[in-house]
Amino acid sequence: PRRIFSGIQPTGQIHLGNYLGAIAQWVKLQENNEDMILSIVDLHSITLPQDPKTLSKNILEMAATLLACGIDPSKVILFQQSMVPAHTHLSWCLGCICTMPRLAHLPAYKEKSANLKDIPLGLFVYPVLQAADILAYKATHVPVGEDQAQHIQLTQDLARMFNNRFGETFPTPHCIFPGSDFARLRSLRDPAKKMSKSDPDPKSRICLIDPPDEIVKKIKKSVTDFTSEVTYDPENRPGVANLISIHSFVTGKTVSQICDEAKNLNTGQYKLQVADAVVSHVAPIQKKISDLLHNQDFLLQVLESGAEKATEISEATLQEVKDKLGLQFKR
Ligand code: ATP
Ligand code: MG
């Protein structure tokens, strides 16, 4: 049977890229009654400096956002990573079989460390913690964006290395990528880049909790090109194609249906249509997020009960690992 694990960092406000690329996939898997464990991976987020007050706020906002988007804690396990001790413990054990060159070559590390004068050790070992997140639950499938493929590969390697040295323990986890139609949304300011929480320019992304006039402004100002027709050509017209992807996602319409309906519009007029569609799609989600944020006790209760279930599963794995390593005595 499949067991799915996935995580999201509480590094900032959820944008449409996260929603489409990650959360919407999770909701779909949840509706298929998959055995699924979802974590707000706060320990990953502190690999780069975080303001403590903002981080706490972001953790609760992330929980509220996931629930508002349809994640149902009675169907899946939703928890905060740092509430479950097995992650860091297992991460240490895996770190002892992982080599430094293996980590130094990972593109995400190279990218994130490139501009830093002093590189935190945590940033370097981040993928080992990610492997521990997945293996602690013996997950078989990991829905992730394509940017994460190399990290899952590392997880597979560490699982195999552990199994070879200490006996069969972990299944090999496989990636599930979101449908290839719009694998990733692009920055509204620079369609060559992906939409990111950590992009310094907030105009580059549409956040789920942006007020309607912000959404309209950001889409109106989004970088497209000098052709006025609305056509879907991701290679040559990535900006317009990105708007069409967003439009298709929030309306459920197909790309060809959208292009057909926009035949008589120029890109300026089309942007207003996209903005309208986004605003009406996110309005009910925004209402739910704000209601949930007014009920902090409920959010904490959800996270605590998730952590309890996650602890039970991950502790069993940890005991097995400690036993295999020779750290555990039976009496
Ligand atoms: P950061 O800039 O802090 O890395 P992020 O926007 O990349 O933030 P993550 O928390 O790293 O978000 O990723 C959460 C999930 O969202 C992952 O599954 C990732 O693949 C997916 N994701 C992130 N950006 C996009 C995007 N632009 N389009 C589609 N999916 C995305
Ligand atoms: Mg990212």
From TrEMBL:
<dbReference type="InterPro" id="IPR014729">
    <property type="entry name" value="Rossmann-like_a/b/a_fold"/>
</dbReference>
<dbReference type="GO" id="GO:0004830">
    <property type="term" value="F:tryptophan-tRNA ligase activity"/>
</dbReference>
<keyword id="KW-0436">Ligase</keyword>
<dbReference type="Pfam" id="PF00579">
    <property type="entry name" value="tRNA-synt_1b"/>
</dbReference>
<dbReference type="InterPro" id="IPR002306">
    <property type="entry name" value="Trp-tRNA-ligase"/>
</dbReference>
<dbReference type="InterPro" id="IPR001412">
    <property type="entry name" value="aa-tRNA-synth_I_CS"/>
</dbReference>
<keyword id="KW-0648">Protein biosynthesis</keyword>
<dbReference type="GO" id="GO:0005739">
    <property type="term" value="C:mitochondrion"/>
</dbReference>
<dbReference type="InterPro" id="IPR050203">
    <property type="entry name" value="Trp-tRNA_synthetase"/>
</dbReference>
<comment type="function">
    <text>Catalyzes the attachment of tryptophan to tRNA(Trp) in a two-step reaction: tryptophan is first activated by ATP to form Trp-AMP and then transferred to the acceptor end of tRNA(Trp).</text>
</comment>
<keyword id="KW-0067">ATP-binding</keyword>
<dbReference type="GO" id="GO:0005759">
    <property type="term" value="C:mitochondrial matrix"/>
</dbReference>
<keyword id="KW-0030">Aminoacyl-tRNA synthetase</keyword>
<comment type="similarity">
    <text>Belongs to the class-I aminoacyl-tRNA synthetase family.</text>
</comment>
<keyword id="KW-0547">Nucleotide-binding</keyword>
<dbReference type="GO" id="GO:0005524">
    <property type="term" value="F:ATP binding"/>
</dbReference>
<protein>
    <recommendedName>
        <fullName>Tryptophan--tRNA ligase, mitochondrial</fullName>
        <ecNumber>6.1.1.2</ecNumber>
    </recommendedName>
</protein>
<dbReference type="GO" id="GO:0070183">
    <property type="term" value="P:mitochondrial tryptophanyl-tRNA aminoacylation"/>
</dbReference>
<dbReference type="InterPro" id="IPR024109">
    <property type="entry name" value="Trp-tRNA-ligase_bac-type"/>
</dbReference>
<dbReference type="InterPro" id="IPR002305">
    <property type="entry name" value="aa-tRNA-synth_Ic"/>
</dbReference>
